[in-house]
Design a protein that fits this description.
It is built from 2 helices and 15 strands. The protein is mainly beta and 213 residues long. Strands 1, 3, 4, 6, 11, 12, 13 and 15 form an 8-stranded antiparallel beta sheet that branches. The chain binds calcium ion.
Amino acid sequence: MSLLLANMALLNPVSGAQLVGYWPFNGNANDESGNGNNGTVFGATLVNGRDGSPNGAYSFDGSTHIQTPIVSWPLEFTLSCWVRVTTTGSFMRIIGNEFEQGAELMYNAVPTTIRIIISDPGLLTDISGGTTNVGNWQWVAVTFDGSNTALYVDDPVTPVDSGVYSLGSLNSVIEFGRPVASTAIAGLKGDLDDIRIYDGVLSASVLTGLYNE
Ligand SMILES: [Ca+2]
């Protein structure tokens, strides 16, 4: 696929999925999707982006975070991000709502995999897989079509795990780097870049475009 076609695919995914928010971290935490879902930065610091660009990513120390104004996941969604963790061996939140609400992308303690939890209050279901690659940027994506979830790690074609979920409506605001107000799980020690949330499930070809971008 040519670069032009790849870019067109990103703007017009064949699945009809629309961007809810896009945070490329070009010197700030603004949403560049046009939807105005700008992030508010609480202590996270700008570092080199995954492409090496100055001030092109945010670094988190386990308690610093970025809060979005998005209070609910779309009924069907795709989450795509790049993450570089600086330590492993403990549970660490990457992106999500309050503890045990909504959707929670995190690192597992043992084994050191990446994990997505989707919550219908009182009913937690989760899948996990992939390899935690300390010190290196990794691409992570999650698709959810209302019941089926797939988790992708450094491979846009074959998910590392999949399962059937129910996503409850009792959602809190979505944050990057830690759970909203809970200390039940630690925040991320590492960097985040190029976060996208879509309303809908992206096709495999669009996921591939994001991975190769
Ligand atoms: Ca960036």
